[in-house]
Here is the input.
Amino acid sequence: MRDHHIIKKKNIIEKYNSSFEHYDDRYRIIQLKKYKFAFKGANFQSKLVLDAGCGTGLLYTHLSKHLSKLKYSRTNFICLDISLNMLKKIKIKEEFKKEKANLSLILSDLENLPFREKFFDLIVSVTSLQNLPDIFQGVSELIRISKRGTEFYLSILKKDTRLKKVISKFKPYFNDFMMINNEELEDSIIQGKLM
Ligand SMILES: C[S@@+](CC[C@H](N)C(=O)[O-])C[C@H]1O[C@@H](n2cnc3c(N)ncnc32)[C@H](O)[C@@H]1O
Here is the structure.
């Protein structure tokens, strides 16, 4: 990894390790709006799901409200983040205590994922990819650990200048590829199934 990439990554870790306390209060409503939009019609049932850059687990908390009701019990969720403090915040949430059999927390880097090839059924990453010094490496890693037909739900801040290049590089890998730009959201949403 190049020196400036290492510095950028260290800064990101520091940023989230020091802001974790206030993250939910500040971003819950904003993130929930994205989830409602991005996951409309998504089926998490009986799937092995990776939330890449899960933060404080807002998505898991949101979905777990429906977990038992919708018999999601055979869904296994892996929440991965590079910030230890963000992950620690998940452990103290009620939903984690109740549903922890379905949830694993992993401290790791999205650009170097600790999973074997063709592992996950569904990949989610909300407002995390723009933090990567090498976003192409990150998306390549997500593809590596996915099977044919794995569903992707990604969101990236619209202001990320690499977005267009990312789309044109990775679009050919997907069926049913869709990019959604809702003016109320600060993120572009990308959906597709790996070919
Ligand atoms: C804006 S937050 C989004 C969190 C969560 N997805 C949500 O919806 O609230 C971005 C998250 O990406 C994580 N992140 C940044 N760089 C990462 C990397 N290289 N690997 C894994 N996680 C990373 C940060 O630690 C932070 O928790």
Q: What stands out?
A: The chain has one domain: 3-194. Strands lie at 48-52, 76-81, 103-107, 120-126, 146-157, 174-180, 187-194. Residues 3-194 form a domain with the Rossmann fold fold (CATH 3.40.50.150). The helical segments are 3-38, 58-67, 84-91, 94-99, 135-144, 163-170.
